[in-house]
């Protein structure tokens, strides 16, 4: 069994606890040679205490995120004092009190954007980029929104801020639309956050600072490198800082212990898990979390809250993947699970650090990161491979064994090209048999009612699957996934004139489940759709809608499939859209060189 670390590790860790609320704020302790990061603003549940709790419990707004994003009109301490004085008075109206003291999230022109009728799918997406662009400028003094130096793309709908892992897939579409300035701006914003907070938070809200999300920053930088060859060198300091964040506390960890985002298995193997520094309800889902904890009386509430938050850090919030009982959210044990996708992405980060270090002439660091990547590859092959079933899966810290269920996360070792040919073939066969549905790849095989379960399929998982399959010569299956998912997207667009957050892949339609209504926009679906359109039709015969009949394999399409994405684990090079600028050929050549250095596919487990 694993034991939690009760003593501080001599590395950058988050330790400052506010006695008032039990909040861990991001006030990092200093380790030797570690940078100093700024004190973080307090989230709204801390600023407003009992008032925040009362508003959320009163269900004044259909979406709990509404009040989490509200901005106080004056000092929250004064508002809280007024609330304490008035709440017991006869006739006190909580809704009226809130309206007097807070500005609710804006619903401006961009939020009300109505696209022109009759647009093609491609034109619709290109028209959405300006509508989804935001900038923070200087948020209000008590705003939960965190300032960023440059503009960014939001997912859409209730998501009025930038999100970490969403942004990579959005940026793929920006690059496909030749909007490189926006790609640059978003990379700069994430680099700024790393320098400011020591990591990239879940999103640019104060209540997201206590966790991160799947680490895609290395892939973002590699994407930018297809346009700016110096990008990897330029952002090497931030890449190193992000790696330090994920590995904090690992130096003194003993076998069988776990601390924050690192876990050392009984045999001494070091791997990573998702974590959140706080163990209270999430402000944006306050009452939902309280209800989940109350419905799980056999577990400490703080433990449930931590696991809910860690699941949010994973991006898969929520899924049977984290649960003992797929029908009972209170059984999730996210912090006791070592995720295969997270560790595959950290392998990619280590390989990118090795390449970038070598490019700057730091051979010692390059060798060190290469060794770390090789250790992680071996650890994944040893502990995150289900030999009985024949696919990659998560490791269960509690049972000290690989978990049984197949999920779309199994494709991440193929995505970063660390899998052996034999294991890649077995995983691909399992995905074809169990996850491939009429409308694309399902997140899991389990229908639990959670949004990251069947029958839902998500754009990022389609993309990871397509690229992973292509890496191992499974082009036919990759094209099948593209065709099925794009057909799903097109059918929904034809019917509803929108792209959405997730899709029901059991047929062709919008997905369901989750804590909030289906969101449209939608950043990562837009990005993946543009990439897939050009892979489906090829550069010479670019299509603006999904064809009614599946195109034959033209030479251009075949060439595109050999190089399916910008900044993917196999290649930083992109199959660009038709009518690319002349400079793209030199970008392709540069990225081919990078891909050969960054990726060293394993031939044996």
TrEMBL record:
Monomer. Residues 573-587 have a biased composition (Low complexity). Residues 556-572, 588-605 have a biased composition (Polar residues). Its EC number is 3.2.1.28. Substrate binds at residues 158, 165-166, 202, 211-213, 282-284, 315, 515. It comes from Tenebrionicola larvae. Residues 1-31 form the signal peptide. It is found in: Periplasm. Provides the cells with the ability to utilize trehalose at high osmolarity by splitting it into glucose molecules that can subsequently be taken up by the phosphotransferase-mediated uptake system. GO terms for molecular function: alpha,alpha-trehalase activity. One of its GO terms (cellular component) is periplasmic space. It is an enzyme of class 3 (hydrolase). InterPro entries: 6-hairpin_glycosidase_sf, 6hp_glycosidase-like_sf, Glyco_hydro_37, Glyco_hydro_37_CS, Trehalase_periplasmic. This is Periplasmic trehalase. The gene is treA. PROSITE patterns: TREHALASE_1, TREHALASE_2. The active site is at 317 (proton donor/acceptor), 501 (proton donor/acceptor). HAMAP family: Peripl_trehalase (MF_01060). Residues 543-605 are annotated as: Disordered. Belongs to the glycosyl hydrolase 37 family. It catalyses: alpha,alpha-trehalose + H2O = alpha-D-glucose + beta-D-glucose. PANTHER family: TREHALASE. GO terms for biological process: cellular hyperosmotic response; trehalose catabolic process. Its main location: periplasm.
């Amino acid at each position: 069994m694993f034991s939690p670390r009760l003593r501080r590790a001599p590395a950058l860790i988050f330790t400052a606890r506010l006695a008032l609320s039990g909040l861990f704020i991001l006030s990092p302790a200093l380790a030797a040679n570690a940078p100093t990061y700024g004190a973080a603003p307090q989230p709204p549940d801390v600023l407003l205490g009992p008032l925040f709790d009362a508003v959320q419990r009163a269900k004044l707004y259909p979406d709990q995120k509404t009040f989490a994003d509200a901005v106080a009109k004056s000092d929250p301490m004064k508002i809280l004092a007024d609330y304490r004085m008035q709440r017991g008075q006869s006739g006190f109206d909580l809704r009226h009190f809130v309206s007097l003291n807070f500005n609710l999230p804006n619903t401006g022109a961009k939020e009300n954007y109505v696209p022109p009728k009759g647009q093609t799918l491609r034109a619709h997406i290109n028209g959405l980029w300006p509508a989804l662009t935001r900038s923070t400028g200087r948020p209000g003094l008590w705003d939960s929104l965190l300032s960023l130096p440059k503009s960014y793309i939001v997912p859409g709908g209730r998501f009025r801020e930038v999100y970490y892992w969403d942004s990579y897939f959005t940026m793929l579409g920006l690059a496909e639309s030749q909007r490189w300035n926006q790609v640059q701006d978003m990379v700069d914003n994430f680099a700024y956050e790393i320098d400011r907070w020591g990591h990239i938070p879940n999103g640019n809200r104060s209540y997201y600072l206590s966790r991160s999300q799947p680490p895609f920053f290395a892939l973002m930088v590699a994407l930018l490198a297809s346009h700016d060859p110096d990008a990897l060198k330029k952002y090497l300091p931030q890449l190193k800082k992000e790696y330090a964040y994920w590995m904090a506390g690992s130096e003194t960890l003993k076998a069988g212990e776990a601390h924050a985002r690192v876990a050392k298995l009984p045999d001494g193997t070091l791997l990573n898990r998702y974590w959140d520094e706080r163990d209270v309800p999430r402000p944006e889902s306050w009452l939902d979390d309280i209800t989940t904890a109350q419905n799980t009386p056999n577990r400490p509430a703080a433990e449930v809250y931590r696991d809910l938050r860690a699941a949010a850090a994973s991006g898969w919030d929520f899924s049977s993947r984290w649960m003992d009982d797929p029908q009972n959210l209170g059984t999730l044990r996210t912090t006791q699970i070592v995720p295969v996708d997270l560790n595959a992405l950290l392998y990619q980060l280590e390989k990118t650090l090795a390449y970038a270090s070598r490019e700057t002439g730091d051979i010692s660091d390059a060798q060190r990161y290469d060794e770390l990547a090789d250790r992680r590859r071996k650890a994944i092959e040893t502990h995150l491979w289900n030999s009985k079933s024949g696919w990659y899966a998560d490791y269960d810290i509690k049972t000290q064994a690989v978990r049984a269920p197949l999920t779309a996360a199994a494709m991440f070792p193929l995505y970063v090209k660390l899998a052996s040919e034999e294991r890649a073939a077995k995983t691909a066969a399992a995905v074809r048999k169990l996850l491939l549905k009429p409308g694309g790849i399902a997140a899991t095989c389990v229908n639990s009612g959670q949004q990251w379960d069947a029958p839902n399929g998500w754009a990022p998982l389609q993309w990871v699957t397509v690229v992973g399959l292509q890496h191992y010569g499974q082009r036919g299956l990759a094209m099948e996934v593209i065709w099925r998912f794009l057909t799903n997207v097109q059918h929904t667009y034809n019917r509803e004139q929108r792209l959405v957050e997730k899709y029901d892949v059991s047929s062709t339609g919008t997905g369901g489940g989750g804590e909030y209504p289906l969101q449209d926009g939608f950043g990562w679906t837009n990005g993946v759709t543009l990439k897939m359109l050009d892979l489906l039709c090829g550069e010479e015969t670019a299509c603006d809608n999904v064809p009614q009949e599946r195109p034959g394999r033209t030479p251009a399409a075949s060439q595109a499939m050999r190089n399916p994405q910008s900044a993917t684990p196999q290649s930083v090079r992109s199959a660009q859209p038709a009518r690319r600028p002349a400079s793209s050929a030199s970008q392709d050549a540069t990225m081919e060189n990078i891909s050969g250095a960054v990726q060293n596919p394993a031939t044996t487990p």
